[in-house]
């Protein structure tokens, strides 16, 4: 869990994914519907950064793309962004129980 937390800061985890994790904590069969999308995005970003490193070009200290936010209207994006810390706190409380 420590490595995952370093790779993906809690502030960057989408709110809908936090809610999904929280509701699935006690479930025997639990899946992440976004897993394929996340794996594809990670592969694209990792390959691009690797290519830049191999060719001696600078890379940022972190890189992320929120595909869900890019496809939302601005009002929904704002509402989602404001609710993210609340959902993160709810997940943290659920994990500690």
Describe this structure in words.
It is a single chain. The protein has 5 helices and no strands. Helix 2 runs parallel beside helix 5. It is globular, with a radius of gyration of 16 Å. The protein has about 100 residues and is mainly α. About 65% of the residues lie in helices and about 0% in strands.
In short:
The protein is an all-alpha fold and 97 residues long. It has 5 helices and no strands.
Question: Which features would summarize this protein structure in a list?
Answer:
97 residues, mainly alpha
Amino-to-carboxy terminus distance: 18 Å
Average pLDDT reading? 83
Order of helices and strands: HHHHH
Q: Work out the strand percent.
A: under 5%
What is the 3D form? globular
Low-confidence stretches: none
CA gyration radius, whole angstroms? 16 Å
* Biggest beta sheet attributes: none
Summing up helix and strand content along with how strands pair, one would put the structural category as mainly alpha
Q: Got a strand count?
A: 0
The helix content is 55-70%
Question: Number of helical runs?
Answer: 5
């Amino acid at each position: 869990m420590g490595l995952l937390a370093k790779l993906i800061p809690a502030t960057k985890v989408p709110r809908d994914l936090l809610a999904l994790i929280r509701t699935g904590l006690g479930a025997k069969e639990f899946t992440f519907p976004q897993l394929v999308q996340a794996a594809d995005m990670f592969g694209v970003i990792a390959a691009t950064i690797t290519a830049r490193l191999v060719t001696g070009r600078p890379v940022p200290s972190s890189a992320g793309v929120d595909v869900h936010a890019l496809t939302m209207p601005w009002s929904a994006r704002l509402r989602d962004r404001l609710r993210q810390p609340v959902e993160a706190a709810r997940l943290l409380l659920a994990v500690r129980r």
